[in-house]
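Hi L., both proteins are below.
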Amino acid sequence: MNGYIYSPVNNVFFDEANKQVFAVRSGGATGVVVKGPDDKSSVAFRMDDRGEVKCIKFSIGNKILAVQRTLKSVDFINFIPDYPHTEFTQECKTKNASVLGFCWTSWNELVFITDQGIEFYQVLPDKRSLKQLKSQSINVNWYQFCPETAVLLLSTTVQGNVLQPFAFKSGTMSKMSKFEIELPVVPKPAKLSLSERDIAMATIYGQMFVMYLKHHSRTNSPTAEVVLYHLPREGVCKKTHVLKLNTTGKFALNIVDNLVVVHHQSSQTSLIFDIKLKEPDCAVNTHQPVLPARSIHPYRIPLAGPAVVPSQPPIPCQLYSSSWSVFQPDIIISASEGYLWYLQVKLPPTVNLLQDKGKLMDFLLRRRECKMVILSVCSQILQGGEKGRLPIVATVFDKLNQVYKEYLEAEQSYTAVVLLFNICDFIIPYYFTYCIYCYINTHLNQ
């Protein structure tokens, strides 16, 4: 969960919140290079070598750097202009606890996760100190953090399958309802059976889900599946979707454009699932892949350096490598090759891969950048000469009309609300003026 990526030369870390890659050389003494999505989030600096770096992350906006070197404390460095650029340290306050990691929840607030609970702090950069806001004692095996929702998930109990979420917002920490992941086999004697590698957190269609990669067992289904647990801000977490993988092996998960993409290493293919493509008919809905399994598009790495011959072709990247690290929602990192990729879904090929045009339109209408692909589908069915074309045309245009109707209704509702506010802005001042006039007039007459 600390985002450590193996590299034979540097200590490389990835921060999922800021989407930054840290390359630390010699404990920072010979340099720390930070690469982010843009130039503003990319920096380079040096820091004193005070031991092996276990975890390193910037707060939002690169204002404060936090570095964990020991199991007892975290060090901080101000990067705010005009503030002292000297380190200060905060030890965890729970006696005999070990710090598993930390997560920034805002530009000056972070939470320590220890094996005995969590400690929520506010960083005071001007005073070079931390103020504890709240703490919670609980046994912790491992943790996951979702930066988009600022929800922290803790694995508790001996088997590790009871998960306790906490939500953070504006200096507050809220304990959410805990829930249990159903394990395929309960070991005897009980031992840690649920790994953080089998769990991922993501937002899909505006709702937060905990995704459990359930491997096959000897007693149950011989194939693996992904189980989705809907985690609301308030209320009970429930199992709502099961994605059938129809195979076994090593898997990794990404979320792209509200689609669950499951990478299968041995076959070097990926499966795509859309939980909205099927109307819910029961409490737990089962889904098959939307499209046939397909491989990620090949990528060639351009050569660089003084020894490069101009005519030398780029080197093909090894897809589905065992050295790949996958992060949510859509990031794949190859530390050995020094590349970070954002995964995307190419929509045009789906036109020929999904034969059911009604299902195809449902799929496309929920995707970003879908307009030109939808136009190509309409053009294809209108120009096609296949038998029974009219029902297909009717189905496609019914779906388009429904979306347009919903858009018009939403626009009318928005216009009505804006009109209401405009009327209120006009009437309310005069109403209050009239009330004051009546009050004065009444008292004068008395």
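That was the first. Here is the second:
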Amino acid sequence: NVFFHKTNRFYCHFQIKNLIFHTTFPGSTFEQAKSHPRDVAVLSPEVKTPIPGPKSKELMGHVQNFQNTKALSFFCDFERSKANYLVDADENIILDCFQQISSMPLGYNNTELIAVGKQDNLQNLLINRPAMVTFADMNFPRLVHDSLLRVAPEGLSNVITMGCGSCANENAYKAAFLWYMRDRRGYELPPAEDDEAYSSCVMNQVPGSPKLSMLSFEGGLHGRTLAALSTTHTRPLLKLDMPAFDWPIAPFPKLKYPLEEHESENAKEEARCLAVVEDLITEWSKRAPVAGIVVEPIQAEGGDNHASDDFFRKLRKIALKHSVAFVVDEVQTGVAITGKWWAHEHWGLETPPDIVTFAKKMFIGGYYFNDKVNWKTPSRIGNTWMGDPAKLHLLKKTIEIVKEQRLKDNAQHTGNYLTESLKSLENIHSTALEGSRGRGLFCAVDVNGSRDKVVKEMLQRGVLVGASGPNSIRFRPSLIFTPTHVDIAMDRLDQVLTSVKI
């Protein structure tokens, strides 16, 4: 079946396979699209009120009575939302290219996930939430095998669950420290008669609490718990007034775009950053030895900053050379959005990472790790709930859907189309846009001017995008995003850049 989808400025002709699209043609309504079993619809956004509208503002007033609402954009009607479309409290229908900060792999109200949510086994876990650290559910081993271990990164056969991305990274650092000390000692724990080690650690003193560090990168964001925040180097308001560990910070490559026109310059920039990493590890060996390096495959919050696959291969070799843990933070880049389940799969590493952290689209936080990092003593890492194992039922079904519907391929195909569409807009609005970049659907473009104004005006036209870094717009759509959804988003961005002075 072939048809034409028309937006205000873009005309697209494409083949439909296995997907039925609802359009804004006569007789097609949002309610019809919402109830369609295929879970995919193409509609023009519908904005009835300014966003936030009256109902959202009223709700903000209620919430303001017990907490600060300055970060709230609007309130959502999740019951009415569907697939790539988010409905707010004022019944505005928004094409959501941000998906709850990159957390919704299949969009809103996927019918198969709804069916899973009604199953007795999931509801039983929700009602009788187990203290997983001590009293695990009897079905947990099978559930992990059918979900987490089905998508385990190559070489990482161990996994532990946590509550969120911050918690995942915080505990991954702890695992790196435990391994570092065990590796240097040559055995698991100090002997029981070593009273100095055991008594000093409870008082936060050496030798029981050793002076160690994690090396991170400028522009990285790894969470808001204290250790994770110490490796976060983005917005000042996340860190202001917070005590932080004094740990080494390396520069992350600042690549120039288009990449094919700046190969030599970018290679020199990456070499410079790698040299600094080695220098820092050596420098800090006498101060607070580096136990691990933590890095995002694409720096998300920091500005959608990319580096080449070769950069990460060389970074991995540096970690091996100095016997420090290599921690890859895949909280945002995981779950197929880059065209592979894990973004680090693109790198072609000879030796896998030691630890890979996850959260967001995985429905649960946690990290994978190799046998080298594994610990043998109980209670070294854990908390009461260890995340929420009920969410693994949703992950299990999501893995099946991604495979059956070939959504990794869709992310690559639609992502390429999105990046090329952004480059086309760059040519039209050459003074306003630059630096279009992406891997799969993990895409961004820089705005020369008032980026925040563009994001706001896009929302008023019914398209939700995110901000990253000082001047970037980021796209984090669901895996069921299509080229026609891209056309709608690009049309609205074109409108904004044409009509709004930035």
